């Protein structure tokens, strides 16, 4: 646990799987209990780690009176149900995230079916489809879902009595993603919207908007205007120079667009064909399609679809349907 600003501690919570080492939760002092931003996964290891870190400043879970979730991905939201039971804290998140909880984590049949249809329509061969469709189901056990007590629209402020945060709706990585901005400290709790070295996943899927990449770029431009001295991200370390980081993320997506346009060439292709022709996970020495896990393949296709749809809306590519399959071509 590190005190990143007097009264604001960063807690690093372990991740059960995947490439990221830990997720950062932030503990904010209040005059009547603490605010916790994000929770980590629902594992014994995460809960133990959280308890241990709270003990370092002499508090326990019951001292948490508010929990705000930047979004409902398992690494940020997973432990919330358990923490609610242990602390009775008030749970708050954006209303668009609330709407996804039931279909994503509780009654998942519909979403699985929609995912399968979307993958099929975008050219995923039947032999690969079922593996990709269910690739996320292993995560369900690491989520203790609960519904929020409070929902945001994105123009609220919340106060701990010591710190006051503006809630900023920053859709893109997730439809109801929020950042928390503390103007007097010039601090931005950025969740997964802006990370110091990783480009957050922006994908089109049954629970995304129609143009998540367009939303993401707009959300980047919104936070770029803020007077920020320190960014406190959901992964990796705190960092500075917000505008430069935003510019870099925008450039990354422009490069991916160019790459996709080049791959489209003269002949129409499906999102699957384009994804299989690209490298992934790093701009520098990316991993080829064959070497990706099923989960990463699914993320890759959904990213390609997000790029294709944003370019379609921007007039750079056209889309047409043939025998139930969606093809894209350059305009
Ligand atoms: Zn996330
Ligand atoms: Zn995350």
Describe the protein's architecture and organization:
The longest helix is centred in the last third of the chain and has 23 residues. The model has no long low-confidence stretch (mean pLDDT 95). The chain has 331 residues and is α/β, with parallel strands linked by helices. Helix 7 runs antiparallel to helix 8. It has 10 helices and 16 strands.
Keywords, separated by commas or semicolons:
331 residues; seven-stranded mixed beta sheet; 16 strands; alpha/beta; 10 helices; binds zinc ion; single chain
Task: Kindly summarize this structure in a few lines.
The chain is an alpha/beta fold.
Blueprint of the fold:
Layout: E1 2-5, E2 8-14, E3 22-28, E4 34-37, H1 44-56, E5 64-68, H2 74-77, H3 80-87, E6 90-94, H4 95-106, H5 109-121, H6 126-133, E7 150-152, E8 157-159, E9 164-169, E10 178-182, E11 187-191, H7 212-224, E12 230-233, H8 242-264, H9 271-276, E13 279-280, E14 287-288, H10 294-313, E15 317-322, E16 325-330
The site of one zinc ion has 7 residues, from helix 2.
